[in-house]
Amino acid sequence: DVYGRDGWPFLEDSCYSVVQDALFEMQEEQDKLQLQAV
User: Which PANTHER family does the record associate with it (predicted)?
Assistant: First the structure.
């Protein structure tokens, strides 16, 4: 978690969804890499 729990309120609402989407994409990529590694 880059910002930690205390950092989230400082992010603007418009930025939040963008950051969230990026995190979801990163998570999906990590999941794919883990599946390929097995």
Answer: NUCLEOLAR HISTONE METHYLTRANSFERASE-RELATED PROTEIN (PTHR34271:SF1)
> For residues 7 and 15, what is the distance between their CA atoms, to the nearest angstrom?
13
Cα–Cα distance, 19 to 21 (Å, whole number): 5
pLDDT 10s digits, 29-38? 999 999 998 8
Sites in the chain below the pLDDT cut of 70: 1-15
> Cβ atoms within 10 A of the Cβ of 24, count?
10
Burial status of residue 30 (CB atoms within 10 A of its CB: 0-12, 13-18, 19 or more): exposed
